[in-house]
Amino acid sequence: MWKWDVVWQVMPDILSGLVVTLEAVAGGMVLALLLGLLWAVMRRSKMSYISWPAWAIVEFVRSTPLLVQLFFVYYVMIDVVGRGFSPLMTGILVLGVHYSCYTAEVYRAGLDGIARGQWNAAKALNLTPYQTYRYVILPQAIPPILPNLGNYLIAMLKEAPLLSTITVLEILNEAKIFGNEHYRYLEPLTIVGVLFIVLSLLAGLSVEWLRKRTAAMTS
Amino acid sequence: MSNLPPPLDLLPFLLEGLSITVVITVGGCAVAIVLSVLFGVWSKSTDPILRWLSAIYITLFRGASALILLYWFYFAMPELTNIRLDAITTGILVLGANVGAYGAEVVRASLESVPKGQYQAAAALNLSRWQTMRHIIFPQAILSMIPPFGNLMIELLKGTALVSTITVADLTLQGKFLRDDTHRSFEIFGLLLVIYFLLSMTITAIFRLLEHRYSRGRDYGGGN
To answer: Which ipTM score applies to this complex?
Structure first.
């Protein structure tokens, strides 16, 4: 049965794990936002040796499990390279690359939504490709897709517990270690579950708010 | 080990996990489809209790992430209830319920995409709620469900790798065993990624076929 004293005992561990989880998600999201944009821009290139690799990476990474990707990078570092990043850095890297392949599709939709005339106008003004993206295209393309990018932030938060499998001391791993030591899983795992439900509800509400804001801005 | 040239000599051992991965994917898919249709329809019900049940299910199984759900049902639930499911059953039910919560939203959106007039016409013809759903609404809604369901099934396939953390010897756990024995990580996990990629392609192909099959005989525009 439920024991409250176990709850108070495990709470500090879980909260310190939560901090690590949030760090991982923050780091992963920065990477996903930058890389995803890179893939999306590369895919629009007319040169197939630029667009094709971006397409192949996105398709392959999206079609394979995050867990196996984590194991791939983590164990190749240990067995083949011999040394490497810390588990947390590995986790951030893999989470970021994995989700960049989802954000790439969101960016692509945003870029496709820009009228042909904008590109033509930029060309007529003799802007370089960088200037075109930086000053003409992206300021119009990004605001409408912010809510969809936010949805992938939530998805990433939900997959961050996978980092426990490569020994990162994030929230689920803290709960599991406590469980192993005290033969008691009910309270730790329930707390983690409830925390995640609350977090994803809050994040969902923020995305809804963002959707209303951007809809008002762009209409 | 077999006497195939490397890295293919690793394949026979890895593929021993294939049937488990396929069983969990297919089983989870069945669970997900049943739950998505059930709770998707309930979320549009006139009965507030059914709508509540559906909202609670979607919140719980979408909000808590798949791995946490898996651990909870495998490690924590037996402490609370004395019900202990074996690992494979837990995997099928939990992954199915997790994907089903996303699927319920897909079903709900598809039902909403059927024009109001169809419901009114069915009511005018004195069809029961069941007849309306079965013969009027669902046949029209199903086409717009197929592509998102295809994506969800790929997410499910990818999610099956998680069962390796609760001792199910699927493709991923076979890969980990092999890694502990041989330390040929690059080949092992590289092969695994390729195998999962091929499985995903298979699911994509199946859902393309389904989409083609269900769009036959529709001559009005984009299918809806």
So the answer is: 0.91
